[in-house]
Structures are given as C-alpha cells and as structure tokens.
Amino acid sequence: MQLAVHEAQDLHELAMSCVNSITNMACFMNQAQDAELKAILQKHFPQHLQDYNMKVEYLSKAAGAVTKLPVPDLQPVLQSFTQAPVAPLPVTPRTFVQQFNDREMATAYLLTLKRSGREYAWAAMEMSNPEIRSFLEDAFRMCSHHAYDVWQWMVKKGYYPLEPAAKSTLDTLGTMYQLVQEPMTIQ
User: 5-176 in CATH: which number?
Assistant: First the structure.
C-alpha cells in the first residue's frame, strides 16, 4: 500500500503519541494505588499496544495492517449521568513531585485520551485511503470509550465535577429551537 505524504506524516505523529501514552500507562500501572484505576489501565493497555502496532504496520509494510482494532463497548457504571455520587474535591497543582498520585495519573491519562481522540478524528478526515480512515475512526472510538471509563472513575472519586444543568438553562435553550417540519418533496 502506498501512503500519501500527509498520511505518512499523520501516522508518524500518531505513533509518537502512542509511544508517549504506552510509556506513561506502563509507569502508571506500576504506581497506581487504587485497585480500580489500576484495573482500568491494565484492561486498556493491550488495545493501546495493538493500536501502536497497527500504525507501525501501516508505516512499514506495503500491505497495511492485518488486524482490525477492537472498539470496546461503553460500560456505564454511574447511577446518574447528570449527578455525581460525591461532591467534587478541590485540587492544586503540586510543584515538587517525586511520584504521581492516583488523581494525577487519571487526569494525565484522561487528558491524553481526549487529545488523542481529537487527533484521530482530525487525521481521519484527511485520509485518502479508506482502510486507514476506518482504522483512525476506530482508534477515535477506542479513545472515546476509554476516556469514558476513566472519567466515570474520576467522577466517583470526586475528581471530576458532574451536575445537572439548571432547569432555567434547559428551558431557555429548549425554547430557542423548533423542530423542522417534514419538507415537501419537489417533483
């Protein structure tokens, strides 16, 4: 498979991002104190390795990747999607750090997933090769679903705020837009 120059450059940047993510995850798995956070990282880790290996295959083999990236299902665990089970806990950046705490590791991983997801979506829009475009769409969905897992853990711990929108806000926004009536077909 011949890559266009922009495809090769995008895959290169995305592969470098994977090197960073995988290295951080390996460190975090060894340092995580919370068993649930550690389990999330361990569950996600093989998919990030496969994602990286597929990029290497696209960059190094004329035939492209031989496998399809699995996209995990969303796993909702929160009882309410608009109200946190605990109040958010304040946070202040630490300026002298020997080792990350669980909150810092989860934050770093969540922000990495969000950034990676945006990069995958952006790069997918630029791919001329349909196989690579589909792979990057799957990689976006993988990051999105992994971010959901980490986000839920953070909400449960009070590390990420979640609260329902005010009724007045919903009432205001709800009156701004009207449903489109079925358009008449032109013959």
Answer: 1.20.1260
